[in-house]
Design the sequence.
């Protein structure tokens, strides 16, 4: 009897299966910060048939697998555990078709998001999925984690952009619906099962995305507000004025702006200090329309102050505030970061509670709050000087406890993976968890797909 | 031992369980045209707890149930079969909350769609789900069937409008996620399972919808085009020009317009006869912007002719063409109707093939084609003089065969129910059907929920 690694190599060919020192180190970890772990082997299939063959063999052998895409996940979903076989989709890349009449794009799952975006743009269309890791994350990973980003307000999470999927089930069965139609109610839409299941129910191998018209005349502004409630009133006013044209509505609370200006050298955006600034982008045809609207809002007392970008340089300057977290590593030794959501109506209360808890417990720790207000999604970062693992656990328990108290979610867009698994029950009832378990057992009865992730 | 009907009455109270002549006839049929059938009993729960109690008892007794909402379904999903117990949600109605900060609405599943729409409007917002049966269909039924309609282009199918659900499983377990957050990746989004499952996996009892800003400055026009390809080019041009503002893009082929003008007394919309007319609505701020755009398109040779509504009366006159199918019963003895989809890029070929097949096989039959072009959704109607059941079967086989040949779906928006079950395999592979069967067995292992529907 050959062992499973020998069988995989025999079936797929030597070059497709790496072991020991031949495994590039990048396969030892994703971006969650867990200790790097060498998997038992890395399988590099080049086709759906090869993914199917690999899963069929692993299923027969009871061999646990973990699926890897671009390894940009922040929750440890693709981080290998001892003894697991990695199925990496990095060699299954390529946009196979852009159909401009149907406004769809078909790609292999390992295609980097940016390659997908560029193919859509080359055809005069837009991919609705966008996030910071676009250069390295894969479209399959985006779908497996139901990725979010800055334009969810306009284009929804990854789920909303998916029209068709090809998936390989735990036993190697290939299920395919390369649907290009916006309306298709022929039986259950089984593709929904796999979107956001983080590789625990099957492996996404091919995707059909619905594309969008490219927004024209996008204008950018930074608005100053006295509270989260004022930010929600601005959101409603902008939506009334520009309807489907609103693209971005990113909130940054005062501590966030203080870090940007006092520690990272950004110019103060306004003379006064405001509770929250909101970065707004909208397809308005002409920047003057946004300027007019914001002028009206200032006059009506809806907003405290505002600045509209008049050039690409202005726009970059306004976005630079929102992008400062990418530089935090240069000024903070460490931070504990969160991706949570609370119902929009309770964001103000949640910010107050988070601030008070951090100030009372860790008076020396910097703390920032920012995020996608329209999507109910807050990113919270606490920077305790000299934090250790026990401190991290305590901060997590406090923050997740507050979020749960507001009926929020412990994961807005990053998924559960391994790192948030202990907190899932704060956002889900026993009945919901039992139903998720039922789905897992139906699709992966032996528990071989990404075990220990999500559930 | 009491029989199941006695047990239901004992548990829920006499007034909640109707039998024999006490059952109103409306519960004998939905709108699919199947022969009316008296169910064994009708249960009228007033709360989720009562739905749960009813399912728990039926589950223990092995009693099949069928769920009824507004009974407007066209595929027989809610049409009772002999011996089934009806669970009617008609007494579970009411909008429980409109949360303007979150832009959400919470309602009991038996609430008529129009009541939901009016509650959203009263709060200055819009419910994205709309269809002709709005006065009688229920929001729970809309979600259970993933209903479509005329504005799917802008707001998506019912699925896209759902943020949270409460569902009762086959054994009476209540699972609840009354989520109001746009981003929530805390584990599997199990609510997706139930949307569009036509009551075969669980009973939807309560819903949270995401609401939209109300579009302002909506303009309406009728455009004349020489082919489906020209219609797609117009769609792309309008999307480029008005982005998220495009609301309606309804195609009507020449035979459809001929029935409207020659048999139903509508004025000819244009002097010339055109292959396809498209009814367009877009939130453009000012009707002049749509007029300008269409003027440019005529000049560029993109469209043959166009008329823009300048008053509410004009708008009603343009919509009257699209609404003529509601009057077909006054001029045709009978018709065989279809709700199919084909990829947008192949709509022109599909129309040609459908036309040729009907003309060759049933030269005396009128035939019309119309539908939601942007959504890839065509409604086809064939009116054979003196058709009987065998003729209906033959027409269905021919039309569904053509649709399948173009990679289309036998059900775009009406669902599968009972009437389309024989044709499901034309649009789904054996692997897809097996996966759907796996989902059904996991959630309803005894097969008691809407048996014989969908699968």
Sequence:
């Amino acid at each position: 009897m050959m062992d499973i690694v020998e069988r995989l190599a025999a079936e797929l060919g030597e070059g497709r299966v790496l072991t020991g020192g031949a495994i590039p180190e990048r396969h030892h970890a994703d971006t969650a910060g867990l200790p790097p772990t060498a998997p038992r082997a890395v399988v590099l299939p080049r086709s759906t048939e090869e993914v199917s063959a690999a899963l069929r063999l692993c299923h027969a052998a009871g061999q646990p697998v973990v699926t890897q895409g671009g390894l940009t996940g922040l929750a440890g979903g693709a981080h290998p555990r001892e003894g697991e076989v990695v199925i990496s989709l990095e060699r299954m890349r390529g946009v196979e078709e852009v159909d401009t009449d149907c406004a769809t794009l078909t790609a292999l799952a390992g295609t980097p998001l940016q390659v997908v975006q560029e193919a859509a743009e080359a055809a005069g269309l837009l991919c609705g999925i966008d996030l910071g890791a676009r250069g390295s994350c894969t479209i399959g990973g985006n779908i497996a984690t139901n990725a979010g980003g800055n334009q969810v307000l306009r284009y929804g999470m990854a789920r909303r952009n998916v029209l068709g999927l090809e998936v390989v089930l735990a036993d190697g069965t290939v299920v395919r619906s390369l649907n290009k139609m916006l309306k298709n109610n022929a039986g259950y839409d089984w593709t929904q099962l796999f979107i956001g299941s983080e590789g625990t129910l099957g492996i996404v191998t091919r995707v059909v995305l619905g594309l969008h018209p490219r927004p024209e005349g996008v204008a950018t502004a930074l608005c100053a507000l006295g509270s989260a409630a004022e930010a929600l009133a601005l959101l409603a006013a902008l939506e009334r004025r520009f309807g489907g044209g609103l693209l971005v509505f990113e909130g940054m609370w005062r501590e966030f702006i203080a870090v940007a200006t006092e520690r990272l050298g950004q110019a103060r955006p306004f003379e006064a200090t405001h509770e929250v600034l909101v970065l707004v982008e909208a397809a308005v045809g002409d920047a003057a329309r946004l300027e007019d609207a914001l002028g009206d809002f200032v006059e009506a007392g809806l907003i405290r102050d505002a600045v509209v970008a008049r050039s690409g340089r202005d726009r970059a300057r306004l976005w630079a505030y929102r992008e400062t977290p990418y530089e935090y590593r240069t000024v903070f030794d460490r931070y504990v970061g969160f991706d949570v959501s609370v119902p929009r109506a309770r964001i103000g209360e949640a910010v107050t509670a988070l601030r008070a808890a951090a100030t009372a417990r860790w008076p020396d720790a910097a703390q920032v709050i920012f995020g996608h207000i329209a999507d109910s999604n807050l990113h919270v970062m606490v920077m305790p000087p000299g934090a250790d693992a026990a401190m991290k656990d305590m901060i997590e328990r406090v923050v997740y406890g507050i979020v749960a108290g507001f009926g929020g979610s412990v994961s807005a867009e990053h998924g559960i993976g391994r790192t948030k698994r202990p907190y899932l029950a704060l956002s889900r009832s026993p009945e919901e968890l039992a139903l998720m378990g039922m789905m897992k057992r139906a699709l992966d009865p032996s528990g071989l797909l990404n075990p220990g992730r999500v559930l």
Remarks:
- The two ends of chain A are 33 Å apart (CA to CA).
